[in-house]
Specification:
The structure is a single chain. Helix content is 64%, strand content 0%. The protein has seven helices and no strands. With 133 residues, it is mostly helical.
Length: 133
Amino acid sequence: MSLLEGIILGNEVDDNTRIGNWNISTKKDATSFLNSINFSFIVTIVIFRHILDLTPPLTVKLQRKENDLLKAKDEIKRLKSDLTPMQTDIDKRHHDLYVEAVNLARSISISRTKQAEDSSETSTQEQCTSCKS
């Protein structure tokens, strides 16, 4: 977010990134991208990150030249066993992911709806009416 804001404003983001000389087209693209980030996008990113966090051991094994399918099969079993608890307690998992998305959105000043004001006084439980305690 700070990189996009820096491009838009023409500021330096950090010691290694000089932003002041971006052209108008790049600034417009950064503005469009920043404006397109909404709560739905944040939720999608949170969900994908949690799923993809589980896959590196398997993807690394499958990309090796000396691909051992038996080891890959074991890794698939491990991945399935990691996913099973998510399936059995899906309401809690949805709630946890929703809370994470709300916190991330709040940290970058993205509201849950276009009309939403600052939701800091609304409890997480009220925000997630479909989630069960």
